[in-house]
Task: structure prediction
Amino acid sequence: MKAGTKQIFDTYCNKYDFIDTIKGSIITAFECLVDSFLNGNKLLVCGNGGSCSDADHIAGELMKGFLRKRQLKNADALLDFGEEGEYLLKNLQGGLPVVNLGANMSLVTAVMNDMDGKLIFAQQVYALGKKGDVLLGISTSGNSLDVLYAGMAAKIMGIKVIGLTGQQGGKIAGLTECAMMAPSNCTPDIQNMHTVIYHLLCAAIENEFWDI
Result:
């Protein structure tokens, strides 16, 4: 972990008391994700309702600049396209590959109609996932069946599973490499804590790859 990344963790611990109580699990998730991205793999994220929105939010923070403008690396060949290529080189940003499994509504509704709604995420994990990827399952209860089934599919494919849950952890926690369990049983409070947790993760991961 870079010195600047450690400072990010320290800042969040000082600002949010609850972060310090689950810091170990967040660091484990951070290390798992950094290792996966370094090896050319991707992050799959899934959740229901507000947690699906959180999955979108995470994708948005990791696929483009979050707290810093991310200069493109090894992209000078864009200059071969002249003025337009120069524009792309100047304005595109570095990103990390993230897929929100709740975003493709044509596929989601097809699975719901043709198969079973509880399979919407597991089907995509099976089709999109590969060994070395990471699945982040978000569930305030830790017991959402579609997220649980996605975790089961991930495990048999060599995909590491990270959980983002409430303090009970639920069945999903038992499948994970680590479960980041927000210390509350109140759904709105858990969701507020989840936002802080994944903002910390995104800031720390960004710093590891683009701290020059």
